[in-house]
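Data card: per-record layout.
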Amino acid sequence: MPRSVNHVASKARRKKTLKLAKGYFGRRKNVWTVAKNAVEKGLTYAYRDRRVKKREFRSLWIVRINAACRLNGVSYSQFMGKLNNSQLEINRKVLADLAMNDPAGFKAVFDQIMNG
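The structure for this 116-residue chain is written out next.
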């Protein structure tokens, strides 16, 4: 009996990988073995960097809040310590947005936290 090879499935699998490689440079976009390696590596980076993105945004928010606090004469750590002891439940993302786009609003929140 002849060997059975499922060419339909293997071709579909290759086609799917080559579709993911669209836009890559040189052989990475159209040669199966090169494209397969490039796509696997790209997917690995995508998985990893979805987590790294969260870290980078948090550090960006901290930098922005720190800059706004220093303009008011207090360090970031002192401000966050008072914030955690206060009744306000406001996260770093919102504080950073206030610091960047509404300095007067940040000042109001800052005064309430430092005096309250």
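Known properties of this structure: The first helix runs from residue 7 to 20. The radius of gyration is 26 Å.

See the next section for split statistics.
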